[in-house]
Amino acid sequence: LTPGLAGCQLFGYVGIEAVLDQMRIKTMKMGFEFNIMVVGQSGLGKSTMVNTLFKSKVSRKASQPGQEERIPKTVQLQSITHVIEEKGVKMKLTVTDTPGFGDQINNENCWDPIIKYINEQYEKYLCEEILINRKRKIPDTRVHGCIYFIPPTGHWLRPLDLEFMRRLSKIVNVVPVIAKADTLTLEERAEFKQQIQEDLKAHAISVYPQEDFDQDLDDRALKDRIREKIPFAVVGADQEHQVNGKRVLGRKTKWGVIEVENLAHCEFPLLQDLLIRSHLQDLKDITHNVHYESYRVRQLNASNQ
């Protein structure tokens, strides 16, 4: 026997796996932060989709009942923060909406306020980080994921869509979705998705999950399966309906109920899995280790020069 193996047999159980329990208890006490941004033209169901994702009324519209909805002439960013608790786990969720994006006749540079806002959050975090007396836990307002809503035209991506994703994918995790996918037939949806994937590849636009950041072979295999499905064709709904004796979340039409959590009807469950159940921490890690890090290096180099 090798000395190492003999040592394992001699000492036996140590209890190192208890570290996981310690981390879980600490995280549950502290809670965690998650910040998402929704971008797209008015009427694509951004607010409804956010409410559907978290099964709570967390969108800007839901928090401002009774106010007349006016489309601003320029892009105005509005953030709202909620604390969501599920099975003892607390999450401070911030949703940033972008009313006015892409609604004008001339949409030149309409992404500038969004880029400015994202960089301002990086700057806030950097200012806190370089203080001599730092806080033990720096408040994190950085945007961890940007859900971009593509209109369900069934054709190629518009120049506005391409330019936005090209610019924003360099500073934030962009997750494109086909909005209101119930307006397309299954054949139109598959063809539109294929055209979008070709467009993104032709213009070298790297949306989340990015191939460059895959950690290992298992990670790559999982993310390859996700990349095949991007952009997700989604339908949002905030009302329940009775279907075969069960209450389901969906949209009622003359022909039946479109169930948002049924993969045969739409790909909303895939989006929810990606953003919350499987890759929420990965979104945060890439934001911190890649996007924020590149911003930090640029700023510190500029200040040194």
UniProtKB/TrEMBL annotation:
Subcellular location, record wording: Cytoplasm, Cytoskeleton
GO cellular component: cytoskeleton
PROSITE patterns, A to Z: G_SEPTIN
SUPFAM superfamilies per record: P-loop containing nucleoside triphosphate hydrolases
Family label: Belongs to the TRAFAC class TrmE-Era-EngA-EngB-Septin-like GTPase superfamily. Septin GTPase family.
InterPro entries: G_SEPTIN_dom, P-loop_NTPase, Septin
Pfam families noted in UniProt: Septin
Annotated source species: Turnix velox
Gene Ontology molecular-function annotations: GTP binding
Protein's name in the database: SEP12 protein
GO biological process annotation, one example: cell division
Superkingdom of the organism of origin: Eukaryota
Biological classification of the source: Eukaryota, Metazoa, Chordata, Craniata, Vertebrata
Ranges of residues in domain Septin-type G: 30-302
Alphabetically ordered keywords of this record: Cell cycle, Cell division, Cytoplasm, Cytoskeleton, GTP-binding, Nucleotide-binding
Main location as per UniProt: cytoplasm
